[in-house]
Amino acid sequence: MSASGTPRSHLDRLRDRIAGGDTEQVADQALNVLDSRRGIWGGDWEQVLDRLRELPADRRRELLHALADRFHRAGDDTEARCRHLVLCGMISEGLADDPLAAERRKALDDLARRQSFFYALRFEVLVRAELAAGRPLPAPVVAVVRRAALDAYRASDLVGLARQLTDPVLNVGEAWADQALSDATTPDWQALLRYAMTATASKPNAKWDKGALALLDTLGTDAVRETVLAWLALVGRPRTLPLERREWETDVNNAFDPYNATALRGLAWLLSLLPPRPETARALGALVETSLRKVAGIGPRNPKVANAGVVALARIDSEAALAELARLATRLTYKNTAKLVDTALEARATALGLGREEIEELAVPAYGLTEVGRATYHLGEATALLEVHGTRAVLSWRNAAGKPVKSVPAAVRRDHPDALKDLKTAVKDIDKMLSAQSERLDRQFLARRSWPYAVWRERYLDHPLVGTLARRLLWTIDGRPAGYADGELRTLADEPLTEGTRVELWHPVGRESAEVVAWRDWLERHGITQPFKQAHREIYLLTDAERATRTYSNRFAAHILRQHQFNSLAALRGWRNKLRLCVDDSAPPATRELPQWGLRAEYWIEGDGEEYGVDTTESGSYLRLRTDQVRFYPIDAPENSAHCYGGEYAMGLRGGQDPVEPLPLEDIPPLVLSEILRDVDLFVGVSSIGNDPTWQDGGPGGRFREYWTSYGFGELNQSAQTRGLLLERLVPRLAIADRCTLEGRFLHVRGDRHTYKIHLGSGNILMTPNDQYLCIVPKSDPTAQGTGYLPFEGDRMLAVILNKAMLLAADTKITDRSILSQL
Length: 823
Known about the structure:
By secondary structure, this protein is of the alpha+beta class. It is built from 31 helices and 24 strands. Strand 1 and strand 2 (299-300) form a beta hairpin.
């Protein structure tokens, strides 16, 4: 304590020890300071360190060895050991002594298993000491220094050191980078990788392109394409050198190495300068999707790389590149990258003098199909048949005698490997595009699209790929409903309809119920499974409660939704939404703009809970949302917003703007009202915690138990009611029909152990006696087995209910221990 009675700090004591000249006491007190500051340098600590550095060489040498004798105090903690070694490294600058060289090498090896380190810890001192000792740095050590430098914009020493570490060109530890380093053995290939590392802007300029083209001329465009595509095929694979994840860190092993990400951006740009080829566009599209896959606590793996892939596709003038952009437009949910895709498509449409919708229609390739959903290839004496079945492409084979065979003939593998590879690639491409086109068509009801008859036949009905979807939908030709069956467009009475002027998608809103039922029967009679609900589409009519509230609907209020699932689903359906963070911030409601109608739909939501780590992710975003009203406004009305954790929504007014009132629901066109409420019903039906069978306990603190019960076993929403009507037709055809009955909200299934009630909305199960709850967790991607004909695809809950019914009807054959323990 000082003469004034003020407690003296560790730094004050260290100054006294330095002045006193006792080396042992200086070493002890220096370590006390180091521990008290957790290795963070700066300020008065740096000033004291300067005094230590100014000591004569013999005294510094004594101090260095005294610190080395105390190294065991650091224990096994990597950071504590590194802090001790950093202090030794700073004091020993200019000395030949290196008593802790072996310990430093071990600490660096341990450090190399980290994603990064905090720049203020000055761990780069260890690296400089190792270089000064004349030993090259292991590649993993180089990698961690580079990654740390990317976060250390204020630490010039660390950033400067990282710039000096030029070998290897890429960070090791990622499959694609390891392969690139292995392949780039010549100076020219090394130069290509180094040039890719200069892609630090958001897009290439003319100067960058000029340098890239010079490299491509040297290496050859074919060689570059083949090699770089092989590298990109490995992007996203598990790390070859896994990193240690500390408890406060995110899932670092599933993220991209941020240093290598710059090279990936450059490689994408390079590919866009090559002569266009379908495999290049395909690889860039895959790179975009791989880069946007979500990582826990991080979000998309690397939007920077995804954006580079989109920029590259936009620069390629080919049908394949345009097709990838059109496919990505229906699949991406990350707002910034999706906006880039939209901009690229708008630019291409403008250049061709077409509308955005037209460019998306023209962008769909045939993928080798020579007729709608079918192509035949003769490879030697074998025949390959490529067919579209529903939303999947299937490749089958026939031998020289024309008989089906289960596997690829050996002669084809031997004599036609390239053709076989192309066919397998086409199957994958068709599957991806079919999914994208199904999503696009499902969103056309609100697009107010109509087509001249001849254009529609070319782009839809007779298109080799889109035709497989269009021929399973209902259309109106000059106002007359029609479907495709037995090789012709036909009316409800099965009369051929061979010509017309204008075509639109048929929608059940405004149709008589007898007509809707008749078309359902027509589809069943012809064995047509629609790619999504159309004839069986839910219709949401205005209710008395909504007439009473007049300007808003509470139909889907007071639900608890999983935020991230809701956010992804909303983006797929064309809604704009902002993730709610548990911070002092505001956000607009989930919004869908309808420019063709001059309207904007809003779904009001707010974050749920306030306990960090329980109600939020590690990054602070809410895990769950509470839902409120659905409203409609003119599309140009000022935006509403509310605090992320709740409170009243208010309209942001600027420059003297007047507030705009929500529109009366009675003034909203019935088709728009129905489709928007159907979207919201879908959000609730998919992402509500009420349909999670594992939430019987009500979640954190049991606070959602009442909601889970009321949703999981309560009244049916419109989607569940439609499911019930369909089950009335399906159940009599099931092999277990004699064990099943439909009553109200439940499908009752009689097993040998119990009788079970499966809720038609949530899929949750109650069993006798006393309505005891039975938890059965469904597969992530269930398919309805043994049900025969289904009128539409895409109802996951229908598949869940049917699979559970099949399982429980034969409950004496159940082997799953978690289920048996409840029976």
